[in-house]
Model the fold of this input.
Amino acid sequence: MNFGLPVDNVLHGDCIEIMNALPEKSVDLVFADPPYNLQLSQDLYRPNLTLVDAVDDHWDQFGSFGEYDRFTRDWLAACRRLLKDDGALWVIGSYHNIYRVGSILLDLGYWILNDVTWIKTNPLPQMRGSRFCNAHETLIWAKKTRDARYTFNYRDLKAGNEDKQMRSDWEFPLCTGRQREMLDGQKAHATQKPEALLHRVITATSKPGDVILDPFCGTGTTAAVARRLGRRFITIDREETYVGIAEKRIASITPQVDEDVPELVDAPNPKVPFVQLVESGRLPVGSTIRFKNTERHAKVNADGTITWDGNRGSIHKIACLCAGAPGCNGWSHWYYADPNTGQELPIDALRAKPKPSDGQMSLWSDDEAD
Ligand SMILES: C[S@@+](CC[C@H](N)C(=O)[O-])C[C@H]1O[C@@H](n2cnc3c(N)ncnc32)[C@H](O)[C@@H]1O
Done:
């Protein structure tokens, strides 16, 4: 329920004033792409002397760092009031502003979960040849407080990433071509973000039906992607032109929501060597394992080898001897007796991740360290 919350709307006005008038703890996720405070003092030209369409808009102008910091503190505080206790915030920026923003959000009590680097696969060259080509932006992902819960669709992300953990360096091209909003034959906005970037953020850290707030709407990228992914949105811009552009863009989006997504089938158990089961005490040294459908029992040795009938070797080598076959997968052919139930299970079951409630240290390298 969102009492008094104007969901699925583009609001026109100053985001701080508007956010302060909305009901507290009503938003699940914030994505903010605030002014960069680029402080450009000169026009930039390409080698062929054409003018670069740089971010010199009046919405990016601030009188001083102090003024920018006050503005940053006010909008970050307004977002924090609006966030549910288990909500989270993303903010994107460049070296011009992200350090100031990061420091202020920590001062306000947010707790940083990750910083993510968006690596631009097609960055603009550095025109003057006086510095490195600036080929990335930084996103900060933070929760409301240190102890707060938050949404992270870890398993879905990993499954979609061919069972590899999703990393914090993301490669996407700049927003170009047909995705770019145009106005009178020109780019409608200097800093339109790619939809793929928002797709990653929203699928990773929100659930269908969640309310996503973007206080700096621009062309409405966050809202458009949120709508496509079956989330609700509130977005704000103080420029009337951008509000109109965003409304038109969002209205053209058809939600692509699959109502019937089945539970995730778990990936095969993570690859850990047999010796780790012995080292962790899951298969104690000297315990026995039984070869499938036989009365052949092998003894587990301290170094992760097993011994059967005077032969010592890996679980696979000894399985081959027992089966009389050139190849045999030990993980599925050796059985151990569960100490609690007495039930016999393939040793592969021991590689399954322990649940956090097990209170055990995890064996597996893909467990979070923090
Ligand atoms: C960096 S752009 C956002 C671009 C957007 N992410 C996109 O993909 O199109 C920042 C936007 O914030 C708006 N803005 C700046 N200050 C604002 C304020 N105080 N209240 C509301 N909007 C503001 C600007 O008009 C500008 O469109």
